[in-house]
Amino acid sequence: MLPAGLSRNALIAVAALIAATALILWLMGRVPICTCGYVKLWEGVVNSPGNSQHLADWYSPSHIIHGFIFYGLLWLLARRLPLGTRLAIATVIEAA
User: Fold this and answer.
1) Distance between CA 93 and CA 13 in Å, rounded?
2) Taking a C-beta distance cutoff of 8 angstroms, is the pair 90, 71 a contact?
3) With left for phi above 0 and alpha for psi between -120 and 50, is residue 52 left, alpha or beta?
4) Of 6, 20, 36, 41, which shows the fewest CB atoms inside 10 Å?
5) Mean of the pLDDT values across residues 41-61?
């Protein structure tokens, strides 16, 4: 069961936004995983070729925090919008 205001369609829209962002990055020449041939859970060196090429790095927490900030601002400014719509808008802003 989904929380009130969060529809299945909203979750599908957010998943589609994430997939579209990944596709755009791939079309821009970004590789999906590190060219080193392996995937690490955490890349702790900021100035390395593996930065932003593994599952998480020092920038990952900032993306999550930005999402909370964008959603919080939408909650303040657009409370009448359903939860799913605010989530989708926050996802678009962060993906951009």
Assistant:
1) 14
2) yes
3) left
4) 41
5) 87
Residue type, 80: R
Residues whose CB falls within 8 Å of the CB of residue 1, separated by 6 or more in sequence, listed in order: none
Q: What is the mean pLDDT of residues 38-58?
A: 86
Query: Taking each helix axis from N to C terminus, what angle separates 8-27 and 83-95, rounded to the nearest 10 degrees?
Result: 10
Is 73 strand, coil or helix? Answer: helix
Mean pLDDT of 32-48: 86
* pTM for the structure as a whole: 0.77
Contact between residue 87 and residue 77 where contact means Cβ atoms under 8 Å apart: no
Q: Are 17 and 88 in contact (CB under 8 A)?
A: yes
- In angstroms, the first-to-last Cα distance of the chain is 30
